[in-house]
Specification:
six-stranded mixed beta sheet, alpha+beta, Alpha-Beta Plaits, 3 domains, binds iron/sulfur cluster, 329 residues, 12 strands
């Protein structure tokens, strides 16, 4: 049977055009990579009853269920409605819970496991991922966002359009310090070498400190404690065929409020400058065309950054292009 399928609508609904005619695959969003176990039964049912009995775990922490006949889409949308209702209950604006996912352009907001589990985490990554999801979904613009608990960057925030990296200001109490230098040695060996030991005290160089919080974890006497939490925002990293590159630091020592406002403003920027003659345009290429200066002005509109925040004046993306033979000459 040859089906008259609207592929735009299909993709918007989070189904994929596959290499097999008439067969699709459904992507389940899992913001922050955190899914209530009660939804697993639904995923299992879709895979067994409509798919090929397998589930692919995506790189963005979602589930992709392959082998679905396209004519079953409406039935499946009804079946997955509790998962979509779950998003709605969390505050994501969804009008028709039984109509399937309302958009797929803005990808699942992924996150590392964060401070619910990981001792290195500087904040609750899953909670922030959900706040971002509420702010930006549903949306057709092709945007990738990930949040990570500390500069170890397990989620690979550096490969996203927006990557949010947890920071903490370590507070030093010299009266508790026994001078063991465990923090100094660790920072030098594993981080950025921001600590020195001078006149029987530890001195932190704020320009070298990236707020990872390892000194707090290393100190045997709690001479280092957690101060305010902050975020480093890295922007416009990407993979893809044209010009893969790592995201670069845009702002350090931002607070949560400013992170959310900047992300919201970025969507307004896309709306204003996207090339509407194209089927889709990835945000990184819009920034390349319009320039970092314009991007910076637009996304910082009405953003109240903490006093401590530092904003990049320019960004020098290296990345690379697939120019044949240049590296082999
Ligand atoms: S990025 Fe940091 S907080 Fe997140 S899982 Fe890795 S080590 Fe833990
Ligand atoms: S680890 Fe703690 S006690 Fe040891 S030098 Fe650092 S601050 Fe002082
Ligand atoms: S927070 Fe990290 S970078 Fe800063 S002083 Fe401590 S260990 Fe070094």
């Amino acid at each position: 049977m040859i089906l008259d399928i609207d592929t735009k609508l299909l993709k918007k609904n989070a189904y994929r055009v596959t290499k097999q005619r008439g067969i699709t695959a459904l992507r389940i969003r899992v913001p922050g990579g955190d899914l209530n176990i009660k939804y697993f039964d639904i995923i299992k049912e879709v895979a067994e009853k409509y798919g090929n009995g397998t589930v692919h775990i995506t790189t963005r922490q979602g589930f992709e269920i392959p082998g679905i006949p396209m004519e079953k889409i409406n039935e499946i949308n009804e079946l997955i409605s509790p998962i979509i209702r779950g998003l709605k209950d969390e505050g994501v604006q969804i009008e028709d819970e039984e109509g399937g996912y309302p958009a797929a352009g803005t990808r699942n907001v992924s996150s590392c496991i964060g401070n619910r589990v990981c001792p290195f985490a500087n904040y609750d990554t899953t909670a922030l991922a959900l706040k971002i999801e509420k702010l930006i979904y549903p949306n057709d613009y092709h945007v990738k966002i990930a949040v990570t608990g500390c500069p170890n960057d397990c989620i690979k925030a550096h490969m996203q359009d927006i990557g949010v990296i947890g920071q903490v200001e370590p507070i030093y109490d010299p009266s508790r310090c026994i001078g063991c230098q465990a923090c100094v040695k660790n920072c030098k060996r594993r981080v950025t070498g921001a600590l020195t030991f001078e006149n029987f005290k530890v001195v932190r160089d704020p320009n070298r400190c990236i707020g990872c919080g390892e000194c707090i974890l290393k100190c045997p006497t709690s001479a280092w404690t957690r101060g305010e939490k902050y975020y480093r925002i890295v922007i416009m990293g990407r993979t893809g065929k044209k010009n893969p590159r790592l995201a670069q630091t845009f702002i350090e020592w931002a607070n949560e409020e400013s992170v959310l406002k900047i992300i919201k403003n970025m969507y307004d920027f896309i709306d204003k400058y996207i090339d509407k003659t194209l089927d889709k345009e990835h945000v990184g290429y819009i920034v390349d065309r319009e320039g970092f200066k314009k991007f910076k002005e637009e996304v910082l509109k009405d953003v109240k950054l903490p006093k401590k925040a530092k904003v990049a004046n320019h960004i020098d993306y290296a990345g690379y292009r697939y120019e044949r033979n240049t590296i082999y000459d």
